[in-house]
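Let us work through a complete example step by step.
Step 1: write down the sequence.
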Amino acid sequence: MADFDALYAVLADADIMQHYPYAFDEERVRSWIERNINRYKEHGFGLWAVCLKDSGEMIGDCGLTLQNIDGQMLPEIGYHIRKDCQHKGYAKEAASAVRDWAFCNTHYQALYSYCKYTNIPSFKTAEAIGMHFDREYEDEANKITHVSSMTREDWNQNYKKK
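Step 2: predict the structure and record it as tokens.
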């Protein structure tokens, strides 16, 4: 909960959350943090704080979670970065670290990223870390959800540090 204020600044921002069904209020941010703590207990992974290297200031979150994607629970890399820190490579850097961690520390044969079809910056970040268009499907929350993915084989060939 020590990260509440920093995370609230991200998740309660209507511009950042425009592709979500809603911006978060205080209770939703607390619930977000609690769910993430429980993810670590249940699965051994979850969202990480994204912090500036120079100051340690938290500017968002990024990590691996299991998400319902087109009716399947799949490992998903998600990210949220504070508005004044967007378009500076922080989401790409964090998502790349999560990608590498996930393929080195889990058994998953593929990783996914999903978002509302209008969230072009989000799926461009997924592409920037080597993911490719997987599919789109209709759903209630997003109208149309865009899915990107990367296989372990592709990561081994193109991204794994040797």
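Step 3: interpret the result. The radius of gyration is 15 Å.
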